[in-house]
Amino acid sequence: MATQVNAVFEHGAFVPETPVDLPEGMPVVLSVSPRPGVEPPTITDPEERARIIKELFESMDRNPIPEGAPLKFTRDELHERR
Predict the structure, then answer these.
(1) Which range of residues forms the domain containing residue 38?
(2) Would the pTM count as exceeding 0.90?
(3) DSSP 56-81
(4) Is residue 80 in some structural domain?
(5) Alpha carbon separation from 20 to 15, 16, 17, 27 (Å, rounded)
(6) Residue 43 domain flag
């Protein structure tokens, strides 16, 4: 029986995002395809990466999460933040 399992590749192994009901040590066949729209970073220059990170933190400082904000935002609340 084939089942689709979403996983993340970490430290040389595929880690399922949800529990998988298989016995330990069960051999499986993986068919790997990246999720649409998800691409690994292509910036390898340390100075460029530092500039991007600095811009990210500056943007976060300009748009802080308000005190007492819920732990999870609704879709509408997320789209209100710019």
Answers:
(1) 7-66
(2) no
(3) HHHHHHHSPPPTT--SS--HHHHHH-
(4) no
(5) 10, 7, 9, 13
(6) yes
